[in-house]
């Protein structure tokens, strides 16, 4: 045992000795780098060791820390010697280290961003901070240390490779932060102590010429010089705010924000604040958010209003624009900043109104933040907001807005702010009963009243996903709200309903209120008579009104009162049952008088409609038995009634209630199937010959039929429920959809198109109908607004899941159908003149819709297939070959020239992701078809007519030869560039490797471009590689300077002068451009890892926005 123990110790000693020898063999820089990578390394020890080495040999220590910085950039091969460091300048040496081979690799996994290097990044930052903090004045102000470190970090910041720029930027930010700490905690503290001593000496009567005063003044001057030296170093180190990599720009903006807070006497200056202002227009949302947070911290200090006057006036418009930013988080931060700005500078009325619109935004975060602005700028100025005046001001605010559903959005946004008048029920009732209100104000008052009631009950007040709804109150608070509300409305609600019994818009709001009352309060306060009076008022309104909203609201309320468990449930049930019997009796009376000459048949239609709305809310088949009579009316007496849509609706509702019973008791299945099939035949019959309203109702019900009763059921006793969609029915539905949508387009009825498309997409997406009907829907992809587009996108997604191999067929059919429509429209356009330019312009206007559709379909192709797969490649090959056959078909009278635009403006956009082999096959097919149709070559076609075809041919050939803009291989991992990009960038990098890349010179020029992509109406789009940033300043920038060969000089001694010149040139507050890469940044490794297929997608999106 003892020998084994000795042997084990001996092995450990040997291993430790070998490890020590390995450390000795490593260079000091490698040792420092690997030490920082290890967890638990003492940074103080490493810094003390380096400072000790610096005091012995400052050149060798400086070379060590530079080599450490190179290692931290992930460059294993590059390392400097002391001789190289003495002979050459930083930029020249760095150009030798960053070889073309290193650039070619495009290494992305450098230490500070590597997943395994998260600890290293923090250690790296602490190291640079400590090296400045622990340096004595003898090192810090020796005129060598700071100059050397600054020049090398600056050179790294201008490097070609992203790892060097990113690592150097991080080091620079930490060095700057440490220098600020030295100024604040050491220099400024010592200067303050000297000032106190000088003041003391002066009070003692000492003259300025005394030795003590001279010594004190000399020390203070030296400290001031040291402070100025550090400030000059800080100016040199702040770079990267315009780098092409957003992470680097984020680092710079965030650091500058910290410095402004910690050292305002130097950084709170317009010359530096302009960088924050420019960052407000950065194309990356993260940078914009960080810039806004910096501004928010500044605006939170009203005492800085005078200091920030120039900044506020310069960037005020930009901040207001950002409220409508395409990124929601940016919009939220912008609203916070603008709200704070109003405390420092009053906004114009126009700007205030623009911001008010944000309270009706689709996104809850935006609305909630906008509500704070509205409260500050509107309601707080009124004064008393607890009573009727506060409610009147809210009504007035809503009445001024033109946006729909304003009360819903405003109440939802203001509710979390605990504004007292929103829960003052007595005041609301008094205002609502006021005769001085206009008709529109009464409607708004009623809607606000009901919205507040719903919020008090924790109910949503607008249709939206739960994630986007504001949080409801706690249960205890909700119960208290309901009880307080009920006590107020027990007496006043029947009076309100009676008072507005003739005002349908107000009444439709009031009749839903009983659903949100605490019904047990009626019993505890012994107000059963009031409850009975309320029920009678509701039933009376139901039997005297025909408005859909009023009838639907009352029906839902009566069913709720009858089904909810409470002590007064029985009288509510009795009232509901009696109402159903009265409606049934009214129908029978009117039905018997149907054939009388003097009978007003609209009474029968109204009776059916009232039954329909009540029947949809509750199964009343035991009290209402009118199915047979309705079928008789539809079948034999349809000529006597103009509108049968409500009759079909009642039959459909009755069938759905019967379906629920059949699921519980299958014994009635056979009878149900017979009844359903008979109803299906009646629906199909009236789909073709009925009135417009009847046809629309039949179409909607048939769509639901096909979804409810799919083609295939599992083999159970319910399999008889299958409803076969015959080809004739499918054809008739398709024809009706196309015909009706065309008519709605002429009348600009977008709401009707939306409802019709939503209904038609349901059976198509579920597979109840064949894909032959899909093109009739897809042709309307981008014509009728965002909601229709979303519905069609969901259809495409479902079809891809169920039938991916056949996707190309209906995509091609859609393009063909749209192209044929376009050609027909061109031929029928009588305004097309004979002049060539005018004719071309008219034709292009007609072609816009086709091009936009092709681009949108291509975009969905890209977005749904992130990686190229076999089904995608085969489908695209089939699509292109079939499209070529369509263009060159040999039918008599067919002219291929008519289809050149079909290929060049449509199919080309979809072929971009084709693989090389598929493109080669398509090219061979194209050449064969061309040779067969044009034996003498395409040249026989007139000049100008063949341009789209030649473009298409060249595109396919390009892919076939391997120069595809979208290679078929899967997208490479981040940081790996495609072969095409490597080849293209290699020559540029070699040419620029020895040149200085100056970040700032290019900023002097550059045209301003503005482009907006609305979210809702005015939202500004900032997509990283697609939409350019927006310049909010009114001044024009100077035209772009042309740079000659001698403009890019090697960085040397004259570089300091260049920096000084640039500082002067940046006195004015300008705004940089990020949308286009400056000439000085070309060839840099952006390291975004983007392949050329992303370029295609961006191009398609850009074309869609222009369209």
TrEMBL record:
User: What are the recorded GO MF terms, alphabetically?
Assistant: chromatin binding
Bias class Basic and acidic residues marks the residues at 1045-1058, 1097-1107
Q: What residue spans carry the region label Disordered?
A: 1-22, 199-220, 963-1107
Stretches with biased composition (Basic residues): 970-993, 1059-1076
Q: Mind listing the GO biological process terms from this record?
A: sister chromatid cohesion
One matching Pfam family: HEAT_SCC3-SA
Q: Which domain of life is it from?
A: Eukaryota
User: Which residue intervals are annotated with compositional bias (Acidic residues) in the record?
Assistant: 10-21, 1025-1037, 1087-1096
Q: Where is the SCD domain?
A: 237-322
User: Which PANTHER family does the UniProt entry name for this protein?
Assistant: LD34181P-RELATED, STROMAL ANTIGEN
Put simply, this protein is called Cohesin subunit SA-1
Species whose genome carries this gene: Planoprotostelium fungivorum
């Amino acid at each position: 045992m003892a020998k084994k123990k000795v042997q084990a110790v001996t092995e450990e000693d040997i291993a430790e000795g070998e490890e020590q020898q390995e450390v000795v063999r490593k260079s000091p820089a490698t040792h420092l780098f690997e030490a920082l990578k290890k967890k638990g390394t003492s940074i103080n020890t490493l810094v003390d060791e380096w400072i000790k080495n610096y005091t012995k040999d400052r050149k060798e220590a400086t070379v060590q820390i530079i080599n450490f910085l190179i290692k931290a950039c992930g460059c294993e091969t590059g390392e400097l010697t002391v001789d190289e460091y003495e002979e050459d300048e930083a930029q020249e040496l760095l150009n030798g280290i960053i070889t073309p081979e290193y650039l070619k690799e495009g290494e992305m996994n450098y230490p500070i961003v590597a997943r395994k290097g998260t600890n290293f990044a923090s250690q790296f930052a602490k190291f640079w901070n400590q090296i400045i903090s622990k340096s004595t004045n003898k090192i810090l102000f020796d005129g060598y240390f700071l100059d050397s470190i600054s020049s090398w970090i600056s050179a790294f910041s201008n490097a070609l490779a992203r790892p060097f720029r990113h690592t150097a930027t991080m080091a620079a930010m930490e060095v700057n932060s440490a220098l600020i700490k030295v100024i604040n905690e050491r220099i400024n503290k010592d200067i303050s102590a000297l000032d106190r001593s000088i003041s003391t000496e002066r009070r003692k009567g000492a003259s300025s010429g005394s030795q003590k005063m001279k010594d004190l003044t000399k020390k203070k001057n030296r400290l001031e010089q040291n402070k100025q030296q550090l400030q000059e170093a800080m100016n040199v180190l702040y770079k990267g705010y315009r780098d092409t990599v957003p992470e680097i720009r984020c680092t710079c903006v965030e650091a500058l924000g910290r410095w402004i807070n910690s050292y305002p006497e130097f950084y709170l200056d317009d010359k530096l604040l302009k960088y924050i202002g420019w960052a407000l227009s950065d194309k990356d949302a993260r940078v914009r958010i960080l810039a806004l947070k910096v501004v928010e911290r500044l605006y939170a200090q009203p005492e800085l209003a005078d200091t920030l006057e120039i900044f506020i006036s310069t960037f005020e418009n930009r901040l207001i624009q950002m409220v409508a930013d395409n990124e929601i988080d940016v919009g939220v931060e912008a609203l916070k900043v603008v709200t704070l700005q109003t405390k420092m500078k009053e906004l114009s009325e126009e700007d205030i109104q623009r911001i008010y619109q944000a309270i009706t935004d689709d996104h809850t975060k935006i609305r909630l933040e906008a509500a704070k602005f509205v409260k500050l700028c509107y309601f707080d100025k009124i004064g008393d907001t607890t009573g009727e005046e506060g409610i009147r001001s809210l009504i007035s605010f809503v009445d001024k807005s033109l946006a729909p559903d304003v009360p819903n959005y405003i109440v939802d946004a203001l509710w979390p702010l605990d504004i007292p008048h929103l829960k003052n029920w007595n005041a609301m009732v008094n205002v609502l009963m006021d005769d001085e209100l206009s008709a529109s104000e009464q409607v708004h008052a009623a809607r606000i009243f009901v919205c507040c009631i719903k919020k008090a009950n924790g109910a949503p007040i607008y249709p939206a996903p739960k994630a986007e709804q504001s949080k409801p109150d706690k249960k205890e608070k909700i119960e208290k709200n309901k009880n307080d509300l009920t006590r107020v409305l027990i007496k006043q609600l029947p009076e309100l309903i009676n008072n507005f019994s003739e005002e349908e818009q107000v009444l439709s709001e009031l009749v839903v209120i009983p659903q949100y009352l605490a019904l047990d309060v009626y019993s505890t306060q012994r107000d059963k008579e009031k409850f009975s009076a309320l029920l009678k008022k509701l039933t009376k309104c139901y039997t005297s009104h025909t408005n859909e909203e009023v009838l639907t609201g009352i029906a839902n309320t009566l069913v709720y009162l009858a089904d909810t468990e409470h002590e007064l449930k029985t009288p509510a049930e009795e009232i509901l049952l009696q109402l159903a019997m009265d409606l049934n009796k009214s129908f029978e009376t009117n039905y018997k008088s149907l054939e009388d000459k003097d009978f007003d048949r609209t009474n029968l239609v109204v009776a059916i409609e009232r039954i329909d709305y009540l029947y949809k809310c509750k199964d009343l088949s035991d009290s209402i038995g009118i199915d047979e009579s309705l079928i008789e009316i539809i079948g034999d007496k349809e000529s006597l009634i103009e509108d049968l849509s409500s009759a079909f609706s009642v039959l459909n509702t009755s069938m759905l209630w019967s379906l629920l019973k059949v699921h519980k008791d299958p014994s009635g299945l056979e009878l149900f199937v017979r009844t359903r099939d008979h109803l299906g035949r009646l629906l199909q019959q009236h789909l073709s010959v009925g009135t417009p309203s009847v046809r629309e109702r039949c179409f909607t019900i048939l769509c639901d039929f096909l979804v409810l009763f799919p083609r295939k059921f599992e083999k159970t006793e319910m399999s008889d429920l299958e409803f076969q969609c015959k080809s004739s029915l499918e054809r008739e539905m398709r024809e009706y959809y196309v015909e009706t949508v065309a008519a709605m387009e002429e009348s600009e009825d977008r709401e009707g198109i939306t409802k019709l498309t939503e209904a038609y997409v349901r059976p198509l997406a579920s597979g109840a109908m064949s894909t032959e009907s899909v093109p009739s829907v897809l042709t309307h992809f981008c014509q009728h607004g965002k909601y229709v587009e979303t519905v069609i996108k969901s259809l495409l997604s479902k079809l891809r899941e169920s039938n991916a191999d056949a996707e190309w067929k209906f995509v091609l059919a859609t393009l063909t159908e749209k192209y044929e429509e376009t050609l027909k429209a061109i031929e029928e356009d009588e305004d097309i003149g004979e002049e060539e330019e005018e004719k071309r312009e008219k034709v292009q206007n007609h072609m816009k819709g086709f091009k936009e559709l092709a681009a949108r379909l291509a975009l969905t192709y890209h977005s749904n297939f992130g990686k190229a797969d076999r089904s995608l490649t085969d489908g695209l090959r089939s699509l292109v070959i079939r499209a070529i056959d369509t263009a060159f078909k040999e039918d008599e009278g067919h002219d291929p020239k008519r289809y050149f635009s079909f290929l060049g403006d449509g199919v080309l956009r979809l072929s971009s992701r084709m693989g090389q082999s598929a493109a080669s096959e398509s090219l061979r097919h194209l050449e064969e078809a061309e040779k067969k149709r044009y034996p003498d070559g395409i040249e026989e076609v007139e000049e100008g007519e063949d341009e789209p075809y030649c473009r298409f041919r060249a595109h396919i050939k390009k892919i076939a030869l391997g120069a595809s803009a979208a290679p078929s291989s899967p997208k490479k991992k981040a940081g790996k560039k495609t072969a095409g990009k490597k080849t293209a960038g290699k020559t540029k990098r070699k040419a620029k490797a020895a040149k200085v890349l100056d970040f700032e010179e290019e900023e002097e020029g550059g045209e301003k471009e503005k482009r907006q992509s609305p979210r809702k109406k005015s939202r500004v789009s900032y997509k990283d590689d697609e939409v350019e940033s927006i310049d909010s300043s009114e001044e024009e920038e100077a035209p772009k300077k042309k740079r000659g060969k001698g403009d890019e000089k090697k960085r040397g001694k004259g570089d300091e002068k260049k920096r000084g010149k640039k500082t002067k040139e940046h006195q004015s507050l300008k705004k940089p451009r990020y949308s286009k890469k400056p000439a000085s940044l070309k060839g840099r490794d952006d390291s975004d890892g983007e392949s050329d297929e992303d370029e295609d997608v961006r191009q398609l999106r850009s074309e869609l926005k222009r369209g």
